[in-house]
Amino acid sequence: MQFGVNTWVWTSPVTTEELEKLAPHVKQMGFDWIEVPLEDLADMDHERGAEIIKDHGLGVSACAAMGPDRDLIHTDKAVRDNGMAYLKGAIQATQTLGGKNLVGPLYSAVGRTWQSTPEERARDTDILVENLVELANFAADFDVVLCVEPLNRFETSFINLAEQAIPIVDRVDHPNCQMMLDTFHMNIEEKSLGDAIRAVGPRLRHVHACENDRGAPGTGNIPWNEVAAALKDIHYEGPVVIESFTAKVKSIARAAAIWRSLAPSQDDLAEGGLKFLKQLLD
What is the pTM of this model? Predict the structure, then answer.
């Protein structure tokens, strides 16, 4: 199992210059994995980023940022096409960085919620499956795996539960389209975090570990022993990445509803979370 941290803990966006500072910092803290958000594909020189990450002996994943103009199930085809183009670029960036997992809500814009009839949901699902099939085939050429993430009800009304994502991934039926789970979102939506993890089973390729308030794992009320037992039951050996955010970057703080500091410092959040997760899972 690899323990990682998303650079959103400290900054947004992550540029080449920021990565040059963060990669050694993350390594020194004891992490063996770094996750790079791809907010804008031009934010970073991905070839140089790969060199920085390799030089510090870190594994890497990339995180998609699904904005209003990158929505794969939007009624406007131009928006859907733009989302497809962005994700194809993100797949290529993930490979260039040296990663295999491209993670996130790879279906709709974060923050877009809408009431849909069963017929409308079925239509949207059909559109998504068609788009994910195309993306999975594209990703296979770059040895990248798409990891579809359910989000809580306040960030999407489309996929909130593991049981809603599972049939979509199964319909795509491609080894390069799997799932990720995030304990923050699960804590809001799932009746049982353990049961959800077991239901996902071998589809699970990536885990975001975050407390119920998006703070350091182990400082809130997530049932971590239940999570650990379920991960053991499905023989999960992939990355476990701390994803949190800083209130100091106003754009990301507003998007993630981070209105206060969640730890004495962002370093405390990362280091404390890592220590807890290693004790729990390693």
Answer: 0.96
pLDDT at 4: 98
The C-alpha torsion from 29 through 236 and 105 to 194, rounded to 10°, is -110
CA angle 229, 230, 234 (to 5 degrees): 120
Instruction: Count CB atoms within 10 A of the CB of residue 277.
Output: 23
Q: Residues with catalytic annotation?
A: 149, 243
CA 89 from chain centre, in angstroms, equals 17
Q: What is the SS3 string spanning 50-84?
A: HHHHHHCCCEEEEEECCCCCCCCCCCCHHHHHHHH
Residue 170, beta-bridge partner list = none
Residue 14 DSSP one-character state: -
**Which fold, 2-281?**
TIM Barrel (3.20.20)
For the chain, what are the domain ranges? Answer: 2-281
In sequence order, what are the residues at sequence separation of 6 or more whose Cβ sits closer than 8 angstroms to the Cβ of residue 168?
Answer: 125, 128, 129, 132, 148, 159
Tell me the average pLDDT across 12-16.
Answer: 94
